[in-house]
């Protein structure tokens, strides 16, 4: 056996024989495993090969023991493997129950005062890597009580970019769940994101990119979007976009500029956001910046996103349009002196005469989203009532083109449809020979050649 296999066997025996936290041999074995994985490519492949039980042994060790120095080394082993091997090994870790164990370790480690910075970086980096592979990570984080841990770390360590970056990556994963986004918004995550992304600065652009992606995911919640509008953040986003547009002359930060547009796009999903965008002169800003981006092919994503936002926020009017907003002028033959048509024609050019009722039931929709997520948390299965299961109803009804009386004239050509099959040979599918005097109710006797 290889050295890695021997060490894993020793670790498995230690788990069965003694307490890992009080075993000096456990410390020695974990240190050797970490050294082999970091120094030898062969050991890393043996740990993650298809038939290896290395990941299961380490996860079982982390599950049955309280947090200690050995656990920190095992987290370092997982961090090294995931960062080097990529998403395939992250999926393996999720299928083995690694998400639940890592969240439990994060909760235990966060209770220390002060928390270990290096450990928090490793744990959040791991959770951010395996999070997209686990569809239920948002629910698991909320159930385990770890939802606010990265948020609190960011609040009290804004200047520590080494710690803030993995925490923001975890918040981005958590925010894909609508219930988590609402909960984080109530705890001030929207205001915190705007502290990170503004004012304009080209320092720590990687942190800026993750923060914008996180904010765009959070603002998809209508509750968070309304909170951003009430605090005047729409104007902040437009100003930030203009600053990046002016200073990014070489187009190196296109992803950051697109991230700002994604935040604006999320905010303008609600009526208040569209109104705030229009009041902040957003139509003119995006139109002018888009015109300047048309000459550069690589900036097409910015032009496309800007076009979507402008189309969504442009005032809607009924035809005919007597104002300059229309390329064509539709003139009614007769305009009454009073009435709804005359009122429309008397409106100022900038007035939106189409009532927007899209956000009148936002609160009800938010509550329904939360109820839906809670039902998903309980893994309740509901049948779809719209699916018809009766086979007889699914069969198409065949209607005759003629009455039955007219079809009886063809009965002689199709005797099998009206006569019974007692006189038929079912094997050869031909009529049996008729024997005179034979008793049709009893067995039919066929005469032989000599009898004839």
TrEMBL record:
User: Keywords in UniProt for this one?
Assistant: Carboxypeptidase, Hydrolase, Protease
Source taxon at top rank? Eukaryota
Q: Which Gene3D superfamilies match?
A: Leucine-rich Repeat Variant (1.25.10.10)
* Chain segments annotated as transmembrane: none
Keyword Protease assigned: yes
Quote the Pfam families the UniProt record gives.
Answer: TPR_CCP1_N (PF25571)
Q: Which SUPFAM superfamilies match?
A: ARM repeat
Q: Does the keyword Hydrolase apply?
A: yes
InterPro entries xrefs: ARM-like (IPR011989), ARM-type_fold (IPR016024)
Q: Where is this region: Disordered?
A: 350-380, 433-452
Q: Which GO terms describe its molecular function?
A: carboxypeptidase activity
Annotated protein name in UniProt: CBPC1 carboxypeptidase
């Amino acid at each position: 056996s290889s050295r890695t296999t021997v060490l894993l066997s020793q670790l498995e025996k230690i788990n069965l024989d003694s307490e890992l936290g009080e075993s000096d041999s456990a410390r020695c074995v974990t240190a050797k495993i970490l050294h082999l994985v970091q120094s030898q490519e062969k050991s890393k492949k043996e740990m993650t090969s298809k038939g290896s039980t290395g990941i299961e042994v380490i996860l079982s060790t982390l599950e049955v023991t309280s947090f200690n120095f050995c656990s920190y080394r095992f987290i370092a082993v997982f961090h090294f493997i995931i960062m080097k091997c990529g998403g395939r090994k992250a999926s393996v870790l999720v299928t083995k129950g690694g998400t639940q164990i890592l969240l439990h370790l994060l909760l235990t480690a966060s209770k220390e005062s002060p928390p270990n910075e290096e450990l928090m970086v490793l744990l959040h980096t791991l959770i951010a890597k395996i999070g997209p592979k686990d569809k239920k990570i948002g629910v698991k984080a909320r159930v385990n009580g770890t939802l606010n841990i990265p948020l609190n770390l960011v609040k009290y360590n804004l200047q520590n970019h080494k710690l803030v970056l993995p925490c923001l990556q975890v918040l981005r994963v958590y925010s894909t769940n609508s219930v988590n986004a609402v909960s984080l918004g109530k705890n001030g995550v929207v205001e915190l994101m705007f502290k990170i992304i503004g004012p304009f600065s080209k320092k720590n652009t990687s942190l800026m990119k993750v923060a914008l992606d996180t904010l765009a995911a959070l603002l998809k919640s209508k509750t968070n979007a309304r909170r951003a509008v009430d605090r005047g953040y729409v104007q902040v986003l437009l100003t930030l976009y203009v600053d990046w547009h002016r200073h990014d002359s070489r187009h190196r930060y296109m992803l950051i500029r697109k991230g700002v547009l994604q935040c604006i796009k999320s905010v303008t999903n609600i009526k208040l956001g569209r109104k705030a965008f229009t009041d902040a002169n957003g139509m003119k800003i995006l139109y002018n910046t888009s015109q300047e981006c048309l000459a550069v092919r690589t900036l097409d994503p910015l032009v496309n996103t800007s076009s979507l936002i402008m189309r969504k926020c442009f005032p809607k009017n009924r035809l005919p349009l007597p104002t300059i907003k229309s390329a064509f002028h539709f003139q009614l033959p007769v305009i009454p002196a009073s009435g709804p048509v005359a009122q429309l024609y008397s409106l100022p050019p900038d007035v939106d005469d189409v009532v927007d009722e899209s956000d009148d039931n936002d609160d009800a929709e938010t509550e329904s989203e939360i109820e839906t997520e809670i039902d998903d948390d309980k893994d309740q299965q509901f049948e779809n009532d719209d699916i018809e299961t009766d086979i007889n109803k699914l069969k198409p009804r065949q209607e005759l083109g003629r009455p039955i009386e007219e079809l009886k004239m063809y009965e002689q050509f199709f005797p099998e449809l009206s006569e019974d099959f007692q006189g038929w040979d079912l094997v050869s599918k031909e009529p049996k020979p008729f024997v005179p005097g034979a008793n049709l109710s009893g067995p039919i006797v066929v005469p032989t050649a000599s009898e004839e």
